[in-house]
Known about the structure:
The structure holds two protein chains of two kinds. Chain A is of the alpha/beta class. In chain A, 49% of the residues lie in helices and 12% in strands. In chain A, the strands form two sheets. Chain A has a six-stranded mixed β-sheet with strand order 6-5-4-7-8-9, with helices on both faces. The longest helix of chain A is centred in the first third of the chain and has 19 residues, at 111-129. By secondary structure, chain B is an alpha/beta fold. Chain B is built from 15 helices and nine strands. In chain B, strands 2-5-8-1-9 form a five-stranded parallel β-sheet. In chain B, strands 3-4 form a two-stranded antiparallel ribbon. Chain B is elongated and about 80 Å long. The mean pLDDT of chain B is 87. The A-B interface holds A 30, 35, 38, 41-42, 45-47, 52-53, 56-57, 59-61, 63-66, 68-70, 184, 197, 200-201, 204-205, 208, 310-311, 314, 340 and B 2-3, 19-20, 23-24, 26-27, 30-31, 36, 38, 68, 78, 80, 83-84, 87, 95, 98, 167-171, 174, 177-178, 180-184, 225.
Amino acid sequence: xxxxxxxxxxxxxxxxxxxxxxxxxxxxxxxxxxxxxxxxxxxxxxxxxxxxxxxxxxxxxxxxxxxxxxxxxxxxxxxxxxxxxxxxxxxxxxxxxxxxxxxxxxxxxxxxxxxxxxxxxxxxxxxxxxxxxxxxxxxxxxxxxxxxxxxxxxxxxxxxxxxxxxxxxxxxxxxxxxxxxxxxxxxxxxxxxxxxxxxxxxxxxxxxxxxxxxxxxxxxxxxxxxxxxxxxxxxxxxxxxxxxxxxxxxxxxxxxxxxxxxxxxxxxxxxxxxxxxxxxxxxxxxxxxxxxxxxxxxxxxxxxxxxxxxxxxxxxxxxxxxxxxxxxxxxxxxxxxxxxxxxxxxxxxxxxxxxxxxxxxxxxxxxxxxxxxxxxxxxxxxxxxxxxxxxxxxxx
Amino acid sequence: xxxxxxxxxxxxxxxxxxxxxxxxxxxxxxxxxxxxxxxxxxxxxxxxxxxxxxxxxxxxxxxxxxxxxxxxxxxxxxxxxxxxxxxxxxxxxxxxxxxxxxxxxxxxxxxxxxxxxxxxxxxxxxxxxxxxxxxxxxxxxxxxxxxxxxxxxxxxxxxxxxxxxxxxxxxxxxxxxxxxxxxxxxxxxxxxxxxxxxxxxxxxxxxxxxxxxxxxxxxxxxxxxxxxxxxxxxxxxxxxxxxxxxxxxxxxxxxxxxxxxxxxxxxxxxxxxxxxxxxxxxxxx
Lengths: 396, 285
């Protein structure tokens, strides 16, 4: 085991702590200078000689969500004990929620994918072989997500002008869903009704004369969108358009949530919302490892139900599933997953690129099982079809 | 005082806290920062605040959040009716007279700020309140003061120990997360759950306690819609001891009947038929 490596100029605890905070920041934590000071203060109030206490104190202070909480120990070890990757692999194994074993049904479809997978595999293996590589990292995790699945560069799928149309269609659609009103009344400058309670209260200051008129109006209760997009092999041709469509949905409303799935499910909302287009593309392609593989719609939906639905889906949520409905798991599973989702969501809409085809009938086992649970099953094979969805959605 | 002392004190008031939770509470007391607790339902998030209040001999002030919660319900409201009556009664009554503390209805947040000794302020299920309220709360928690326009700023003499809980119905804002210390409470391990059970039901036979914990842990591994939490486990233990059961494998039908304590949806009941249950209990025995 090599000695702990800090940046050379780091002399005192303050700088080392600042280095640790920078390390966390690189791994997606939102920490700033204020947190550095807090962390030092927190260390002052625990038994400094007890390493476990120091770790817990910093975890409590710096982790600010479930994911951060679960991943903190790895990052902590990586920085303070310079463990690098080898240790990471071991630590990962005893976490329950980290990614489960890769489903066996995923196989690279194309020759180049397989080659890419192999290359990825050897790249990954190399740092593990010798210690030299792990040493030069200043205790930083180099890459936390280096699964050796094929990576398809989504950059080429993203920066085309023609995709703007899809994006605009999505924005219009999101807007159509946003215009909802509540039954409850809120104080408002230009409301339709008088707010008698406030008028009387304000009249006290005017000797009982109701001079100031206050009003109320029904507040907006917009529908929230949760979009789940299939990026499996059978959907590759549509992926460009659908990603642009997702981007449009996400940028139209701050509460929209977007996910990609093939055999696994991943949340891409933050990546799509990234203002830096290039960085967004980079993040997306990292996430879409295994892009273009098989599909497990039922498994992905079940995972969504378990992990995200409680937070993402409520009584005012429209769930949009973009998929062709070719699913490798038994149709019963898909039906069960949709039944559960149904209970939470207000509407479930399935956008199917195959509907536009001549003589298409939803007879594939997957989609046949799903149909009874859907509020709408709509075509999405062309940009025009996406644009025409607006009217359909206004009715939901 | 370190976090292990606090852990022992909590244990004395029948709350078994993990190391991480004890550290979080300790730091929140030392640094004077609010503590945000997240985790699945029924792992004892709300109980933390109660136990903390008991340990510190402090008053517990609870604000239960719900959708549509507004400032008037959470912070303060003028008692309009009393003000009106007072004005009518004294014809020459000046306006200033009715804007005094006498006519102020204190809601939990103002109540917590105006205590002489630091109370424990429990803001339960903050994720149910809307974002606007969250932003207001941020101000109250960060500054420890509330401004009433007609009266001036009310500063806290003894800042409350704030404990916030969230169930993850909605993602909380980054600003709130940054202000708070954070602790994720997961379902307890077997040993921890045994400790909780023996702390809450000291009279329970060790053998039955082990069976109960084992069974509940096994049920949690099943594919259920609503996974039973610690609270459900304690309910079940109380039910079993109330029925005078000494061994789970003795009477499967009564055990199956008491499953109402653990399984809270029809689908979950169907997912745990008698034979599955018998198998789990058989392993536990």
